[in-house]
Amino acid sequence: MWHQYKIHLAPRCRGFHLITNDLLRQIPELSEIKVGMMNVFLQHTSASLTINENADPSVRTDFESFFNRTVPENESYYTHTYEGPDDMPAHLKGSLLGFSLNIPITDGRLNLGTWQGIYLCEHRDHGGSRTLIVTLNGE
């Protein structure tokens, strides 16, 4: 069985945002799948997706601090600068983290670890709404 959804997320400020529950609310057919996979694909290049700690919000703050230090703004070697100082670093951060996730489905639920959640990583100061394509496959 295959299901596919286009999910629009409201604009979020720059940072790392848990979106697990936002996704689950919009994919009711998940509960019908005994064994399968869910692919989540982000249709943008200045944000990204990852899975990590879902309980302690300080993890999200530390992620933002780490990536801002690792990929700083206003570097003299950037040539793609016409969309603002946060744009090229956002593309680099997106490529480092990635735009797609595959998550196993077991007995109608995502088979994430106890402390795992799905993050939208917004790398722009004002990134706007984001669109995800979620594809379920299973039996």
UniProtKB/TrEMBL annotation:
Q: Write down the superkingdom of origin.
A: Bacteria
Q: Which Pfam families match?
A: YjbQ
List each coiled-coil range: none
The UniProt entry's sequence similarity note says:
Belongs to the UPF0047 family.
- The protein in question is named YjbQ family protein
Look up and give the organism this protein is from: Thiomicrorhabdus heinhorstiae
